[in-house]
Amino acid sequence: MDAFYASVEQRDNPELKGRPVAVGGGHRGVVAAASYEARKFGVRSAMPSVTAKRRCPEIVFVKPRFDAYKEVSNQIRAIFADYTELIEPLSLDEAYLDVTEDRKGLGSARAIAEDIRRRIREECNLTASAGVSYCKFIAKLASDQNKPDGLCVITPDKGPAFVATLPVKRFHGVGPKTAEKMERLGIFTGADLAAWSREQLDAHFGSSGEWYWKIARGIDERPVRPDRPYKSVSAERTFDEDERDPGKLAAELERVSGYAWARVERAQVIGRTVTLKVKYADFTIITRSKSFALPIANQVEFNEAGQALLATLIPVPKGIRLLGLGLHNLSENDAGGPVQLGLAIL
């Protein structure tokens, strides 16, 4: 989806149409999503609201309405389900679809993508961009290529050449730190990455070397998995003012644990590792984790584990602006996915 949260807000409030909008933010928060009008000024998600306001003085901050976004997301998923059962959600606004079966007899993956985009526009009054290709890695890259409201098709014979032209910092699986390391090694594009041997990549990047070697050549054999497992479930809260008081911090963490545990129950997962996230007033971020022999049974245990981690940071050396609590080391369904066959892409 294109600027999903912000687009829903602009759709539901005509006064916001055409204006730079940031979902979230406020006095001390961060931007959860920015409209394309705001992005022209360099406003991006995860940016502190004070920075967004400095870059775009006319920006309008709106409170997030996650129930509304979830409702729209469910509408879009229902559209997807008319075309395939093989839907792998990545978030509320993004998913992989394997359309090999071609239920509606449209003849190609391109035609299916165009029809899905048409229905989203007509039924939800929103725009979506699609990437169509023979593997997940390239389809995801292609989905960003012609945003907003765009379609990009990369056929198998064009895959390696398409990857070669792109900066490695855009690659799924290459985070900011890895991108910096690659650039220090002279790897700026997919073509640069493809010039390295598997042995060289293994020497510098360890177990990730094989993945980088494959994607540089347009190879990704992962199936679309409807049962995609959660890696973690968490929640966090940014305070209006920096907080130092241990009692208030403990109370806030208990609230955060409640939000996070509700998500754990909705996701129907269990986990053994509790992780506390703390962001200080100077934006320094630290995490503290503890793993247990058995899965965390309930919110009480979850909160107690978080409170014990927080206690190790008391007394607080500087004000805290954000607390987060998450459950990791989750149980997963590791059943193999279906084999992808050869529906025409065009």
UniProtKB/TrEMBL annotation:
Its cofactor is Mg(2+). Its main location: cytoplasm. It is an enzyme of class 2 (transferase). The record marks Y5 as: Substrate discrimination. Keywords: Cytoplasm, DNA damage, DNA repair, DNA replication, DNA-binding, DNA-directed DNA polymerase, Magnesium, Metal-binding, Mutator protein, Nucleotidyltransferase, Transferase. Mg(2+) binds at D93. Poorly processive, error-prone DNA polymerase involved in untargeted mutagenesis. Copies undamaged DNA at stalled replication forks, which arise in vivo from mismatched or misaligned primer ends. These misaligned primers can be extended by PolIV. Exhibits no 3'-5' exonuclease (proofreading) activity. May be involved in translesional synthesis, in conjunction with the beta clamp from PolIII. InterPro entries: DNA/RNA_pol_sf, DNA_pol_Y-fam_lit_finger_sf, DNA_pol_Y-fam_little_finger, DNA_polymerase-Y, DNApol_IV, PolY_HhH_motif, Rev_trsase/Diguanyl_cyclase, UmuC. This is DNA polymerase IV. Belongs to the DNA polymerase type-Y family. The active site is at E94. Its EC number is 2.7.7.7. It comes from Sphingomonas alba. Monomer. Residues 1-175 form the UmuC domain. CDD domains: PolY_Pol_IV_kappa (cd03586). One of its GO terms (molecular function) is DNA-directed DNA polymerase activity. HAMAP family: DNApol_IV. It comes from the Bacteria. Binds 2 magnesium ions per subunit. It is found in: Cytoplasm. It catalyses: DNA(n) + a 2'-deoxyribonucleoside 5'-triphosphate = DNA(n+1) + diphosphate.
